From TrEMBL:
<dbReference type="InterPro" id="IPR003593">
    <property type="entry name" value="AAA+_ATPase"/>
</dbReference>
<dbReference type="InterPro" id="IPR003960">
    <property type="entry name" value="ATPase_AAA_CS"/>
</dbReference>
<dbReference type="GO" id="GO:0016887">
    <property type="term" value="F:ATP hydrolysis activity"/>
</dbReference>
<dbReference type="InterPro" id="IPR027417">
    <property type="entry name" value="P-loop_NTPase"/>
</dbReference>
<feature type="compositionally biased region" description="Acidic residues">
    <location>
        <begin position="15"/>
        <end position="24"/>
    </location>
</feature>
<keyword id="KW-0067">ATP-binding</keyword>
<protein>
    <submittedName>
        <fullName>AAA family ATPase</fullName>
    </submittedName>
</protein>
<dbReference type="InterPro" id="IPR037219">
    <property type="entry name" value="Peptidase_M41-like"/>
</dbReference>
<feature type="domain" description="AAA+ ATPase">
    <location>
        <begin position="266"/>
        <end position="409"/>
    </location>
</feature>
<keyword id="KW-0547">Nucleotide-binding</keyword>
<feature type="compositionally biased region" description="Polar residues">
    <location>
        <begin position="1"/>
        <end position="12"/>
    </location>
</feature>
<dbReference type="Pfam" id="PF01434">
    <property type="entry name" value="Peptidase_M41"/>
</dbReference>
<dbReference type="GO" id="GO:0004176">
    <property type="term" value="F:ATP-dependent peptidase activity"/>
</dbReference>
<dbReference type="InterPro" id="IPR003959">
    <property type="entry name" value="ATPase_AAA_core"/>
</dbReference>
<comment type="similarity">
    <text>Belongs to the AAA ATPase family.</text>
</comment>
<feature type="region of interest" description="Disordered">
    <location>
        <begin position="1"/>
        <end position="34"/>
    </location>
</feature>
<dbReference type="GO" id="GO:0005886">
    <property type="term" value="C:plasma membrane"/>
</dbReference>
Length: 686
């Protein structure tokens, strides 16, 4: 935006700024007989703000070509102007009249276009305006919903007007007030401000500092708008896999847009799914920080807490979130706990359906309108339960990517520990601590580090590795006999996994809820055969086999293993077509349900379980020395890596038949993945 210096005045775009003095505000016209001085002051203020903010914004958004066509009186020009918010529609509707050389027809938005009679009336209005041979401009905050389809189809261009940036507002303050020194504003000072906030802040007679202070105060009162200065750098986040790669691509695309190197297509959106504490919010914050964008957050819970909970008030809060995104673009919009919005399938026949249907529909339409009108907004949602999210939300075009953030592996946990230790214990080997935390999420790591620091502080000394180990592996209430039983059980899983060619990540005796231990291994592949599935079952049953062969006998501690084995074998026969029949009787959950109603099917699964249990017993017996060695090491160290288990098995080779001699089923060719189609890890709870 250029500023030309004249002999006694200076021009900013099309408005005149008088030379500065120290006395006060611009002179007001003398009051007429029917106007009070206050009314004239308000009129002058409104005109000034339109000139200072709305008109320069529109000029910038139009660009040189459209601005030239307006000024030259192009009677064939039809425009759609997308305002930052509904409050900006009125001032932006006045601004084109000053920019056009001759007649201009401005079409205002309508909230009632869902009514047939309103649609017809607005279509006739647009058609008549276009036929009159004058420039036509439709101005709306949500053109796709508030302007006639006739105008949208006929428009030569859609002009997206952003909210004013700090440079423009600083210039407007200098032009509006001659009192005080110039002010410097930041994006934080203007975050979430709407037209009426500017209107309330720009008061005649105010100093520049007073106007700036009002704006900053209004911005600070906005909820849901945050800045990510305290977020960790994106490049330091570990254990995020595909999610971090996606975030880095978005940051590069935002930078390309700023440099004018990117096309105008919408920035990709994503749903981040994962267990609580896997860092979904942290990733959104780090992305916003790396991209230099404001973060606008919301949730279904916030819509209720900010309103009286009635349907109209909740929908109003939902609309305010999308309006904030349009006002603050470019920005990052973050919807937390997306699964709090129920899937419409779950509402079938429910008395709550009438309430939730408009809220869900409002979300769908809000996302559609936002992504069409604001391609520079990065929309992210987070959920702990992806299967509960309405399928219409999960589809590309609304949320383009569904990215799972799994619990970090040992390397990821080690890096998270390093990041939160902030230089402490720089020379220490943190691999043991990471192994102890295997299966836990980033939030758990933060809690362990904080607790370890507290432990050291309360004893008046520096943090040590032992503090971390103590917090990662708290005192165990189990008796020596119980620990030994759990160790033998987990050792059976771990040795069977390695013996059957699986990549073992680790085995632990850590208590976790009702589980007394855990064995983690890599997923065997996308399309396993019957042999692969049955090997999964053998590994799952090997814990019980170790209890029988080397421990005190079978116990109820193997209930999770039996449930997994039964589920996998039921799916093998009833879902995957890998048994004796090709008949598909339903999905995995339906297959398990058949056990309760089909006694013949239950006998078939029981026969498979008994056969594979015998394989597990044979395998554990062959590797009994290795199982006992692994169990003893677990009692001492609480956790072992896959490499350590492999080393113990090499030191204690099988004493009976080789694994190759143990029979495995060769029936079936394989057709589906029993683990929901995603590579990752298999976790067997103890």
């Amino acid at each position: 935006m250029s500023i030309r210096t004249l002999s006694s005045t200076s021009t900013v775009d099309d408005f005149v700024v008088e030379p500065e003095d120290q006395d006060g505000s611009p002179d007001l016209p003398a009051p007429s007989g029917h106007e009070s001085l206050l009314a004239q002051a308000r009129s002058r203020q409104r005109l000034s703000l339109r000139e200072l903010l709305a008109k320069p914004l529109l000029r910038q958004a139009l660009g040189l070509d459209l601005l030239r066509r307006l000024k030259h009186g192009d009677s064939s020009l039809a425009l759609v102007v997308a305002a930052p918010s509904p409050a900006w529609v009125a001032p932006l509707s006045e601004a084109p009249k000053d920019l056009a050389f001759q007649g201009l027809w401005v079409i205002s938005p309508s909230e009632r276009l869902h009514r047939p009679e309103e649609q017809l009336q607005r279509a006739e209005e647009a058609a008549k305006a276009l036929a009159k041979g004058v420039t036509v401009a439709g101005v709306a905050a949500d053109p796709a919903r508030e302007l006639s389809k006739v105008l949208l189809a006929a428009a030569d261009a859609t002009v997206i007007v952003p909210a004013p940036d700090a440079a423009l507002v600083e210039q407007a303050i200098r032009a509006f007030s001659r009192k005080g020194r110039s002010v410097a504003l930041s994006a934080r000072d203007l975050a979430g401000l709407d037209w009426m906030d500017y209107y309330a802040a720009f008061r005649l007679g105010s100093t520049r500092q007073a106007i700036a202070a009002r704006l900053a105060r209004a911005a600070g009162a906005r909820t849901g708008v945050t800045f990510a200065e305290d977020a960790p750098p994106l490049e330091t986040l570990t254990g995020y896999g595909e999610a971090r790669t996606w975030a880095e691509h978005i940051v590069r695309e935002v930078e390309d847009r700023r440099a004018g190197r990117a096309a105008g297509s919408a920035l990709e959106s994503a749903i981040l799914a994962g267990l609580p504490g896997t860092g979904k919010t942290t990733l959104a914050q780090a992305l916003a920080k790396a991209a230099g964008l404001q973060l606008v957050t919301t949730s279904v819970a916030s819509w209720f807490s900010a309103s009286d909970g009635h349907l109209g008030a909740v929908v109003k809060e939902q609309k305010r979130f999308f309006a904030d995104l349009r006002t603050m673009r470019p920005c990052v919009g973050f919807i937390d706990e997306l699964d709090a919005l129920p899937s419409r399938a779950s509402l079938s026949g429910s008395s709550n359906g009438d309430f939730w249907a408009p809220v869900i529909t409002g979300m769908l339409l809000g996302i559609d309108a936002l992504r069409q009108a604001c391609p520079d907004v990065v929309l992210i949602a987070a959920t702990n339960f992806l299967d509960r999210v309405d399928p219409a939300l999960r589809r590309p075009g609304r949320f383009d990517r569904l990215i799972e953030i799994a619990p970090p592996d040992v390397e990821g946990l080690t890096n998270i520990l390093r990041a939160h230790l902030k230089g402490d214990l720089a020379e220490a080997d943190l691999s043991l601590v990471a192994q102890l935390l295997l299966g836990r999420v980033g939030a758990d790591v933060v809690q362990v580090v904080n607790s370890a620091r507290r432990r050291a502080r309360l004893t008046g000394r520096a943090l040590t590795l032992d503090d971390l180990i103590a917090e990662a592996s708290p005192s165990d209430p189990r008796s020596p006999a119980e620990l030994k039983a759990c160790a033998i059980h987990e050792a059976g899983h771990a040795v069977a996994a390695v013996a059957l060619g699986r990549t073992l990540q680790g085995v632990s005796l850590q208590l976790s809820g009702a589980s007394g231990g855990m064995t983690r291994m890599e997923h065997p592949g996308f399309i396993p055969t019957r042999a692969v599935i049955e090997n999964n079952v053998v590994i799952g049953l090997a814990g019980r086999a170790a209890d029988l062969v080397l421990g005190a006998g079978a116990s109820a501690g193997a209930v999770g293993d039996l449930a997994l084995a039964t589920r996998e074998l039921s799916a093998l026969h009833a879902s995957y077509g890998l048994g004796d029949r090709l008949l598909h009787r339903g999905g995995v959950d339906d297959a398990s349900a058949l056990l309760r109603v089909d006694s013949g099917f239950a006998r078939c699964i029981e026969a498979d379980l008994q056969r594979l249990m015998n394989r597990a017993i044979t395998l554990v017996t062959a590797h009994r020395a290795a199982v006992l060695a692994v169990a003893e090491a677990l009692i001492v160290h609480r956790v072992l890596s896959g490499t350590q288990v492999q080393a113990l098995m090499e030191a204690y080779p099988p004493s009976m038949a080789r694994i190759d001699d143990i029979p495995a089923s060769t029936t079936g060719t394989g057709c589906a993945d029993p683990f929901d189609g995603s590579l990752g890890e298999i976790t067997l709870p103890g």
